[in-house]
Amino acid sequence: MGYKLTPAGFGALLDELATNYQIFGPVRYAGKGRLAGTDLTTYGPVRSVSDLVWDARTTFAPKEVFFPVKESLLYFSGQEITEPSLEMKETLVFLRACDLNAVSRLDKIFLANGPEPDSYYARRRQHIHFVLMECQEGFPGCFCVSMGTNMATGHQAALRLENDHYLLQALAEPWIALGERYGQPARVEPVWVEKNPLTVRVPERVDIALFQHELWREYACRCIACGRCTLSCPTCSCFSVQDVIYRDNPERGERRRVWASCQIDGFTDMAGGHQVRADRGDRIRFKVLHKIYDFRRRFGINMCVGCGRCEEVCPEYISFARCVNTLNQLMEVQGRDA
Amino acid sequence: MPNPYLPVPAKILAIQPQTPVDYTFKLATDIEPAWGQFVEISLPGYGEAPISISDAGAGYIELTIRRVGQVTTALHRLNPGDTVYLRGPYGTGFPLAEFAGHQLVIAAGGTGVAPVKGLINYYANHPGELEGLHLLLGFKTPADILFRADIERWQTIFPTILTVDQGPGGWPGRVGLVTEFVREIPLKPHARIIVVGPPLMIEFTVAEFIKHQVNPEQIWVSLERRMHCGLGKCGHCKINDFYVCLEGPVFNYSQARNLVD
Amino acid sequence: MSYNTKELIKNAYRITSQRGFTALRIRVPGGHLEASYLGLIQDIARRYGNGTVHLTTRQGFEIPGIPLDKVPEVNRLLAPLLEKEAALGVPIENFQAGYPAAGTRNVTACIGSRVCPFANFDTIALAQKIESLIYPNHYHVKIAITGCPNDCIKAHLQDIGIIGQVEPEYDPGRCIACQACVKNCRQFIVGALEMDNYQVQRDGKRCLGCGECILQCPMAAWTRGPRYYRIVALGRTGKKSPRLAATFLEWIDEKAVLQVIANLYRYIDRHIDRSLPKEHVGYIVDRTGYQVFKEELLEGVDLGPKGRVARELPFYGYSYDRNLYMEG
Ligand SMILES: Cc1cc2nc3c(=O)[nH]c(=O)nc-3n(C[C@H](O)[C@H](O)[C@H](O)COP(=O)(O)OP(=O)(O)OC[C@H]3O[C@@H](n4cnc5c(N)ncnc54)[C@H](O)[C@@H]3O)c2cc1C
Ligand code: SF4
Ligand code: SF4
Ligand code: SF4
Ligand code: SF4
Ligand code: SF4
Ligand code: FES
């Protein structure tokens, strides 16, 4: 079902939704950017239509709405261990096609890797519903078309900002009812980005011999191991577990998980001082291959969804896309020589 | 949906110091592990640690834990009767079916003996399952030797080479790295080999067996990686497209040699 | 040849080593100028000077080799530059008469947030605002503005050095305990951060407000809070006891900064020794003492909830009395 909405109509629709849902989307925090005088565009609560940011990519991905940066796993009280309860309102997340595709990658790790699903992820995930924000042309560094993630499924509704009005494609309730109430019926066909300025060719196979290639050596001195490329990535799922005892009551404490990054020092440290991938070039190789090869070998799809965030946030201008294209060329050369 | 992170309490039945820094904990639990699997043991407020199951029997498991950091130090302060928390068992153990009817060689270094101790004891009780078991056990110094009582018993049952890297005066046994004694083992063509220990020990010992015409497919290793979940979620233990906590820690070497960190 | 050297100097010309020739100093508030003015500077240097231009330490242009009798002609050419000053809010009475004063030196600034990622604010904009507040003025005062404590503009060598500060705001819910901020502050700054129980603690009294933790944090757990300024005062070079400025005020807002600067001129006016041809502010403070300086500079200034004032200004170190430490 298609509807055309004025900003006021869409605003009223959101107000009504807000009674039953918490709503998250790309929002802008003025002056909160890393550099003086810049804003931070990231996921946050959407309180009105004008909060939704259409003209920029978010620095962080929507995953934090249902995979929180920090999550309590257990509470300790003396010898007693309890599980935190969760009362979660139904939650709407406004996101782009790449990020919606990324959710399926997270689902794979948390729900399908290993014999047991992650109950903490699962219990949040069931309350999450998606509204697609259609991209007209993407942002610098996007390569969703290359990754086949320019199209998406699994959303309740799709929204397009066109000039001064919104076009709503309602795929499920409550959107159809809301569209009827706040909009005018209209023909709305989904629109997908069909070309990105950046094209990435993912190699079919990556030869293990390439692990030693000099390509990685360059990154060893360029990368500063800050972790931004992974922490901003919509598909990275790694975490560490911390036990803390509360400072104000040493009888109590909690075990929690917190995001981690394979790029940051300490990710692989083991007691006794043994560490693997101490070299930052090796860490980049590990990350890149996870995104475009290892994950696919396990689950049949590439992990990377081409959102371009890692391209944008790297302070050292290390391009993931260039790296993948280089790998592809190296494999092609190998194929030709063989 | 069950919470896979929720550990269950387990009472400490006994604590047996092996060396000043390695203690064996006997814990009351109904976990029935396969040999080579591990558990996550934790103390609330200190954290969790993946530890190989070094032995098990009806109603108990044994863990042999070296004191190296936060959790392990806290565990070493406990007494019999105290409670720890367990979840598991995790990972893939040794493929006993692959060993059945064959000669088996177990080369283990240092704390690497822990993950195979239960297996060796199993074969000590079921010697007919193999066409002979050879043990090659290495420790840094005589003071580092773990499981002395078990080793003495094994020596009476299986051909056993016990060696130390450095032997002070008065040490009657062998001195030298595990690798130096591989050649003393009368290897049969289809021998099965297990190598466990620190990363370099594994690397050099495997190389030595391969030099003695053993195929990678005949060798199994047990790997150790940083772990934060044991469940295939946290990502710390991943190598290539494998998760050590799921497909490991025991890997066939034909696979393990392609695991590049 | 008859020229009033005092008048020339006030008009931004120098008495130079070449008799009969002068050098003109062009002000560039904040050290930043539309490139279109370069044509004018080039033109004056070629037609009236010796064809060269010197870049001064105070971020201006100095055009040497101008015959003294050409000064009125050159002054008329300066009209566009004076119009630019007027556009900043500087009261200019006569656009044909050249610079109305030279005592108060060009307000300098590091490149600031327009280019430098370390900068906590737009230093150039503040320099231009201060220019409009204090110029024209014959009192000899040097002011410089720098975006962060790296102090690329050398604010520590000025009478008044203004250093941008930001109050870092921490969201423990976003912190992944990567330690990037802690290690960086410990190794390169003042060590104001500690990791405790996987949470970062900031010692607000130690923190410089440099904002590096915000730059380091990959999670935006540190973000920019309110902007503040630190004023370092009474640094100087010169033949008598050169010294680095010491922190006079910190964690004050822009309004307070501007008020303090306005007060400085009033203080000079009250205390300057008029029997001398000129007296530099640093030497005035040597006579009145810091307490008078402090009291008068803070008249009517709202330091705000975070503002801190120096009890005294501890000048350490450098001495021209080399006999204390030179061999032989
Ligand atoms: C499959 C497996 C089996 C193991 N079996 C044994 C065993 O039988 N006996 C034994 O003494 N040790 C064993 N270890 C190593 C043991 O897990 C670490 O020594 C222990 O986690 C250290 O914890 P800590 O808190 O005392 O040290 P800290 O250095 O304070 O460790 C803090 C954190 O690092 C993690 N960590 C540190 N070292 C390791 C490591 N080597 N592997 C995984 N995570 C680590 C801990 O889980 C914890 O989260 C095994 C490790 C693995 C992966
Ligand atoms: S790897 Fe880069 S482009 Fe791919 S999904 Fe992650 S952040 Fe986006
Ligand atoms: S790229 Fe690194 S941080 Fe991201 S999921 Fe893979 S291993 Fe984890
Ligand atoms: S963002 Fe760039 S510098 Fe930082 S870890 Fe990733 S590749 Fe390295
Ligand atoms: S602002 Fe600078 S001094 Fe203050 S805590 Fe951050 S890094 Fe340290
Ligand atoms: S840099 Fe950011 S995430 Fe890392 S410890 Fe500091 S505040 Fe936490
Ligand atoms: S230990 Fe967490 S994925 Fe293996």
Automatic annotation (TrEMBL), chain A:
Keywords recorded for this protein, A-Z: Iron, Iron-sulfur, Metal-binding
Pfam families given in the database record: Fer4_22
Superkingdom field: Bacteria
InterPro entries attached to this UniProt entry: 4Fe4S_Fe-S-bd (IPR017896), 4Fe4S_Fe_S_CS (IPR017900), Helical_ferredxn (IPR009051), Sulphite_reductase_A (IPR014259)
The 4Fe-4S ferredoxin-type domain, residue ranges: 213-244, 295-323
Residues making up the signal peptide according to the UniProt record: none
Gene Ontology MF annotations: iron-sulfur cluster binding; metal ion binding
Name recorded for this polypeptide: Anaerobic sulfite reductase subunit A
From TrEMBL, chain B:
Keyword Lyase tagged: no
Lineage: superkingdom: Bacteria
Domain FAD-binding FR-type, residue spans: 5-96
Entry-linked Pfam families: DHODB_Fe-S_bind, FAD_binding_6, NAD_binding_1
Binding site for [2Fe-2S] cluster: C229, C234, C237, C245
UniProt cofactor note: Binds 1 [2Fe-2S] cluster per subunit.
Keywords for the protein's UniProt record, in alphabetical order: 2Fe-2S, Iron, Iron-sulfur, Metal-binding
GO biological process, one term: pyrimidine nucleotide biosynthetic process
Cofactor: [2Fe-2S] cluster
NCBIfam families in alphabetical order: sulfite_red_B
Protein name, entry field: Anaerobic sulfite reductase subunit B
Protein species of origin: Moorella mulderi DSM 14980
Organism lineage: Bacteria, Bacillati, Bacillota, Clostridia, Neomoorellales
Gene name of this polypeptide: asrB_1
TrEMBL record, chain C:
GO BP annotations listed: sulfate assimilation
Organism in which the protein naturally occurs: Moorella mulderi DSM 14980
A GO term, aspect molecular function: sulfite reductase activity
EC number per UniProt: 1.8.1.-
Keywords recorded for this protein, A-Z: 4Fe-4S, Heme, Iron, Iron-sulfur, Metal-binding, Oxidoreductase
Keyword Cell membrane: no
Gene name linked to the record: asrC_1
Lineage of origin: Bacteria, Bacillati, Bacillota, Clostridia, Neomoorellales
All residue ranges annotated as the 4Fe-4S ferredoxin-type domain in the record: 166-196, 198-227
InterPro entries assigned: 4Fe4S_Fe-S-bd, 4Fe4S_Fe_S_CS, NiRdtase/SiRdtase_haem-b_fer, Nit/Sulf_reduc_fer-like_dom_sf, NO2/SO3_Rdtase_4Fe4S_dom, NO2/SO3_Rdtase_4Fe4S_prot, NO2/SO3_Rdtase_4Fe4S_sf, NO2/SO3_Rdtase_FeS/sirohaem_BS
Origin: domain of life: Bacteria
Family stated for the protein in its record: Belongs to the nitrite and sulfite reductase 4Fe-4S domain family.
Signal peptide span: none
GO cellular component, one term: sulfite reductase complex (NADPH)
Name this polypeptide is given: Anaerobic sulfite reductase subunit C
